[in-house]
Design brief:
about 100 residues
């Protein structure tokens, strides 16, 4: 069983670059959720992402969401993109690397 750490970060992007940034985040694979916030910090849209899906399946499944992201981009000049990421636990990664049987 692996313990994953969750981190959160935010980016400020212009409305014209919003769709490109969201697509880039979806393709990364370790993103759990994407939040779109207006200039006042109010969440306008939350996009939950399922880990482990192929990029082409993921992009097709989120096509309607990407249309909504485009609509938000058209309305706002400045958008804050919040990203919740899943980061593998360093201890769990170290345990799997040492299982090569070299100590025998």
């Amino acid at each position: 069983m692996t313990d994953d750490k969750t981190t959160y970060e935010e980016f400020k992007v212009s409305g014209e670059n919003l769709l490109t940034k969201v697509r880039e985040l979806i393709r990364e694979g370790n993103v759990r959720r994407v939040f779109l916030k207006n200039e006042e910090g109010e969440t306008l849209l939350e996009i939950p992402l399922t880990a482990g899906l192929a990029v082409t399946v993921l992009t097709a499944a989120f096509a309607p969401v990407l249309v909504a992201v485009g609509a938000v981009a058209a309305l706002l000049t400045q958008v804050t993109v919040g990203v919740e990421r899943r980061e593998p636990d360093a201890d769990a990664a170290g345990k799997s690397e040492g299982a090569d049987g070299a100590d025998a």
